[in-house]
Amino acid sequence: MSLRVIRTALVSSMLALWCLLAGMATAHEVLPSIADMTETDGRLVFDVEANLESFVSGIDLTEVSDTNEADEADRYDALRALPPEELEAQFREFWPEMARRITIEAGGERLVPELDAVEIPETGNVELVRPASLSFSVALPPGAETVRMGWDRTFGTLVLRQMGVEEPYDGYLEAGATSDEIRLAGGDRAGPWQTFVNYIPVGFDHIVPLGLDHILFVLGLFFLSTRLGPLLWQVSAFTLAHTITLALAALGYVRISPDIVEPLIAASIVFVAVENMFSKGLSPWRPVVIFGFGLLHGLGFASVLGEFGLPPGTFVPALIGFNIGVELGQLAVIAVVFVFVYLAVRVDQGDPDVPLASGFYVVTGGALAVLSYLALTGTGVWGGSLMEEIPVWVFIVPTTLLMALCLASVLLRDQIDAYRRIVSIPASAGIAVIGLWWFIERVFL
Predict the structure, then answer these.
(1) 134's torsion region: left (phi>0), alpha (psi -120 to 50) or beta?
(2) Quick check: pTM over 0.70?
(3) Which region holds residue 42: left if phi is over 0, alpha if psi is between -120 and 50, else beta?
């Protein structure tokens, strides 16, 4: 089999994988639940916005970023189609099980919550998340001054907000986490520094692993050129732009419907990827276009913050921390991909140490291929999830194919622009395929 045939096979595999990944990105997104905690007449009341169908169907929200990835997806979809009264009946039947998996501790006692009310919107577009509201409460023991709250990890992330007191507690509890002791009289609001630190991982998490569309956009910037200058110009323009709109939207000065923003974000992915395929360097207009797309992505980040809000007393530190987390996530994506393609780029630029590059890609690619097989077949820990939110194979399999493309570019180094033709263009084509599918899905499906 000739090297050209191998190259063609690798490119086809990469495109097929991108199509598969595009199909995973549906509107069944896993969102955090939001609980407002208020003390009223000796009772502690929790008003919660959550996706009840995911609870009733038994989906482990730490294992998926999209409900279609779960084994219980059919059950979930059936619940999504139920009218409100039927879903409420099924949730009330499930409630005793859920109550046992909610942790509320006060006055040295473990308290069992009582369900007070359930409100479910009418059945609409079953492809969209239907957030419902439930209210449960506990009777506080006499003399209780503090409370701790959390719930089972399978229920996913919980945003817990204390209401009706001075300097209220505001926490972002990762799946399975329980809050620190919260004073019922208030006074546990995190200071500016602590808020800043707390929101950095929140921003990072919404790039890696949850922000697949933002990841692909950043990779589109990366694959334009192997030189540092074009990448710095693009990333700088993108960072400045999304910082502006993230701040304006979070402050309430800009509001644009996600129905408009999300398709345009998908279109931005298509643009940068397609331009990579036809341009060998940074065009005069590209930084300006990237700035415009950055404004859109900032609105996308703001929609994430809008799901659970920012603490009003420490708004600025939280916003800055979230934005820094986003930047760290983007830099992490670029750094990882750069490490993997570095030797292929060096060989393409005339580095004579071909055996080193070939050996690296054979060994690394072989190891990743084994891990890909284990992940796809559900074997051992590699069949689970990465960072408790997304399947491992989503990251390992594309990296394996990238290693194969880099190896092919090393072996075919005598061709003109081997790295660009064998690695950059196929990767960009795959990114464009996903962006196009997302655009069609977000506009028409």
Answers:
(1) beta
(2) yes
(3) left
Do residues 53 and 79 touch, judged by C-beta distance below 8 A? Answer: yes
Nearest-angstrom CA–CA distance, 65 and 212:
10
Question: Would you list the DSSP string of 24-71?
Answer: H--S-B---EEEEEEEETTEEEEEEEE-HHHHHHT--TTS-SBGGGST
In a 3-state reduction of DSSP, which class is residue 324?
A: helix
Token pair 């003390």 is found at: 39
Residue 82 DSSP class: S
- The SS3 assignment for 156 reads coil
* Maximum C-alpha span of the chain: 81
DSSP 392-403: THHHHHHHHHHH
pLDDT tens per residue across span 118-169 = 999 887 666 667 779 999 999 999 999 999 999 999 898 898 999 999 989 9
Left if phi > 0, otherwise alpha if psi is -120 to 50, otherwise beta: which for 425? alpha
Taking the C-alpha atoms of residue 13 and residue 18, their distance in angstroms, rounded to an integer, is: 9
Does residue 271 sit in helix, strand or coil?
helix
For residue 442, what are the β-bridge partners?
none
